[in-house]
Amino acid sequence: MTAENLINGIPQERRLTTAIPGPKSLDMQKRRVSAVSGGVGMTLPIFIERAGGGVVVDVDGNSMIDMGSGIAVTTVGNAATEVAAAVTEQVERFTHTCFMVTQYENYVDVCEALNRLTPGDHEKRSALFNTGAEAVENAVKIARHYTKRQAVVVFEHGYHGRTNLTMAMTGKNQPYKQGFGPFAPEIYRMPLSNPFHDGLSGADAAKHAISRIEKELGAGNVAAIVIEPIQGEGGFIVPAQGFLPALVKFANNNGIVFVADEVQTGFCRTGAWFACEHEGIVPDMITTAKGIAGGLPLAAVTGRAEIMDAVHAGGLGGTYGGNPIACAAAMASIGIMEQQDLNAKAKNIENVMVPRLKKIAEDCGVIGDVRGRGAMIAVEITKPGTDEPDPDMTGKVAKLCHSEGVLVLTAGTYGNVLRFLPPLVMPEHLLDDALTIIERAFKEATA
Ligand code: PLZ
């Protein structure tokens, strides 16, 4: 094993030593079932012992290729050396003061970095939280406070979280909403641009959505339009070109706060710092989480200074928001993104994956669409020759990949999207190997 084949001392290889799950995972799974709420889901019943680079290693010694990054979180790699060092240094000095009680510098460092890196050169302010859902909730709070309006526009297939407000903003019932109502009021879902299914230009799709907002809500009652520039859980739907700019223009003309939910797309995931950049749009506010801190829980709202500062002192916060250990991890992660040019790495992942997936689509006949940007790539699985979803085939392919040591995730309102979110530091030989396994899985599933 050569040095470059080791990351965090872990060989960068796919290697199965037992069936998946192995005996140790099966034992732990028994304990899990009797100790952990059955309401908490899981993709795969294995337990991880170590991770780094492009692999996760389970308690049975199986080394799996990680094509999920813990749902787009370990962008800089799992337990990245610089992140681990920054966290260790911070955890030994102090772990917590509560920024609302006594302050510390790295909270300000993260806000400055966010204000600098997010789209637009206007004056900005940021506030830090713990989770993506909490960031989205706070963006809505701020937009309502600033506009003195209540209505919030979201989009079909959108995902914004599992808290009461963000659950209302999320489009899909099972598993997110079933039995958990009543839901927060004043949330209105509008049609998205969904090129594979609607065939509309971005301009036409936007015209349709805007006309519905005007007729059903009245533009003057809308506090915020909240949208993922590329949908995550909804199935990596990339709106047709021109859709997002038309919505931004409409929001600007009507005093509506345009919020880009970049919790999944942010921090180099799509080959740009933020996915808004692909359409040249400048949101009034942007929510971030996931990739920001290399696996530590941290989230943020960044927005125009006049909007963010409109809230009275004490109106925003939380005990742990912007915890110093998470902030240390964020500064180290952002450093890796800049020094290792992770945007270029994400683009390279797209350049390797898309042609291979298109070839698989041609050969197997069950892939209706290959889409996404950077290291956020998906295939939509449909009954041959139609755009009818095939969630059974999707599950079958995912399972075959898992049993061969490639950790893939599914997504989509109809559960028929296989999505890929590799860490951006994924070694190319592993990406190639994962694609070979994915190709084989499609062959076997459709044989
Ligand atoms: N906004 C765009 O993708 C989280 C959810 C997984 P939290 N997506 C993964 C699950 O099943 O719970 C997400 C997102 C977008 C908001 C969120 C919410 O972020 O950190 O999970 O609260």
Describe this structure in words.
The chain has helices at 23-35, 69-72, 81-93, 105-117, 132-147, 164-169, 195-198, 202-217, 243-253, 305-308, 324-339, 342-364, 391-403, 428-446; strands at residues 6-7, 10-11, 48-52, 55-58, 63-66, 124-129, 151-155, 187-190, 222-227, 257-261, 285-288, 299-304, 367-373, 376-381, 406-407, 409-411, 417-420. A seven-stranded mixed β-sheet has the order 6-12-11-10-9-7-8, with helices on both faces. The mean pLDDT is 97. It is globular and about 60 Å long. It folds into two domains: 3-66 and 341-446, Alpha-Beta Complex (Aspartate Aminotransferase, domain 1), CATH 3.90.1150.10; 83-339, Aspartate Aminotransferase, domain 2 (3-Layer(aba) Sandwich). The longest helix is centred in the C-terminal third of the chain and has 23 residues, at 342-364. By secondary structure, it is α/β, with parallel strands linked by helices. The protein is built from 14 helices and 17 strands. Helices cover 38% and strands 17% of the residues. Ligand PLZ is lined by residues 71, 131-133, 136, 159-162, 228, 232-233, 261, 263-264, 289. Ligand PLZ binds at residues 71, 131-133, 136, 159-162, 228, 232-233, 261, 263-264, 289.
